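Q: A small favour: would you put together sequence and structure tokens for a protein?
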Amino acid sequence: MPARRIDGDKAGLELLPNGILHLAWDLDCTITATDAEAAMLAVNELAEAEGHPMLVDMETTRTVTRGARAVFATPCAASRIALLGSSPVDRMIANFFLGVNSPPCPTRFFTSRHQAVAWLQSGAADEHERPASA
């Protein structure tokens, strides 16, 4: 199934053949509460109430507003979340989110797509996790 654009046109979402939801934010975007709500609605609709692991590609995201962080702290159809970034700014955004908010499911930060997908598919660690530099 090809990626569908999310309302607000700042991200694409698809359910990959391996069962992982892939949410990819656009280059240099600011994620607002409205954007976060649209993304979570799209995730819930695509997952159809089934828990799926989710890869969030946040490379090159400019910023995430306080309102968006609050939205991302609410439960959705994601059973675990891997935040994928590549820059110190990405790591700072992830660390701030994970340090201030309680993620609704196990969540980790990765700089390696391969390691992020392996962790999502492992199903291990049912407890919330702090960011890691895997």
Remarks:
- The longest strand covers residues 78-84.
- Residues 125-134 have pLDDT under 50 and may be disordered.
- The helical segments are 33-47, 66-72, 88-100, 113-122.
- DSSP finds four helices and eight strands in the chain.
